């Protein structure tokens, strides 16, 4: 048996009044999604526990079969995994933004989207000046880097995400609680060291924002996840443009398949992702395909872009995988589910349950005939924890209430 988990990020929505109360899933022409729903079993699933943030990190954790309450570890360790940084049991990994501070305020959470090559010089400079046995900086992509500190008390530090406090007085939003002294000292020292760095002098001379401070947040320790092989005896690959999802796949013992042209935005190459998904299924037992574009459209409140992203996902990814079933020697099971809703009228993630469909050839379908929020509400399963879906897919549980 082979398995495909297909995840259009943020695809589910709420009825949009100016489009006759329809959702993008209802309006889009998605014959392959409808085929999966009509010939499979459907329902709704909770991907994000109520008391956790409705983010793709928590939600994709659920869809990969891990109870986020038990295993979710924060963003830092996932990004560490995707960067190939191994954490010892006493180490805590923070996402470390390069930011712009001016006149005591946080001016930009991304230092004007500083490019990787410039950022790398600054992070390596900080490592040289501030790095020691307890402190390690690792350069990442763009403004997104990693700070690893030794000491589990840092798990209790309260750090705010910088994108939530742009424009605020920095003194008011510094880390608090255990470890605050060291974290604050590192931020202050980084400011002193970076202000005068030649990279920043050159950026300012070109009218760009200086990357003159670090901002640690989103910390956690490496989670002890049972791998896909340990849980189900399966090999697998993950296809995504998003580092957090890559990190999850690696921690689950999966291969990360890099697809040329996968951008994480509207221009992502759907056709290539579909082809690589099929190729992965030939080699391995399971493939997890995550596409970010519908979520981006949701954040922008862009109806047309969201509908188009769904139609392209339908044609080039689900279509390619369904076409491949004839060539695969094994039976193929498909799980189709968005990680969360990003409603166009809210423009951010919400906790509402998501629709899902599970299909494998020859299974006895339920009454649902198309794939949408409304149709799925008539399906066999309602509001089940999403981390159980993989158990159902793998035949470990019939999911009966
Ligand atoms: Zn999003």
Q: What is the H-and-E element order?
A: EHHEHHHEEHEEHHEHEHEHEHHEEHEH
Please give the radius of gyration in angstroms.
22 Å
Oligomer, anyone? single chain
Per DSSP, what share of the residues sits in E-state strands of 2 or more residues?
15-25%
DSSP helix fraction: 25-40%
Q: Write out the strand line-up for the largest beta sheet, numbering strands in chain order.
A: 9-8-10-1-11-12-2-13
**CATH superfamily (homologous) name of the largest domain:** Alkaline Phosphatase, subunit A
What does this molecule look like?
This protein has 401 residues and is of the alpha/beta class. It folds into 2 domains: 2-72 and 225-393, Alkaline Phosphatase, subunit A; 80-220, no CATH class. It has 15 helices and 13 strands. It has helices at residues 24-27, 31-39, 56-63, 68-71, 75-83, 116-130, 180-195, 198-205, 228-232, 243-251, 270-283, 293-300, 303-324, 373-376, 389-393; strands at 2-8, 41-46, 91-102, 105-108, 135-141, 144-150, 213-220, 236-239, 255-256, 286-291, 332-336, 354-359, 381-385. It has an 8-stranded mixed beta sheet, sandwiched between helices. Strand 8 (236-239), helix 10 (243-251) and strand 9 form a beta-alpha-beta unit. Helix 5 (75-83) crosses helix 10 (243-251) and helix 12 (293-300) packs antiparallel against helix 13. 50% of the residues are buried. The model has no long low-confidence stretch (mean pLDDT 94). The structure holds zinc ion.
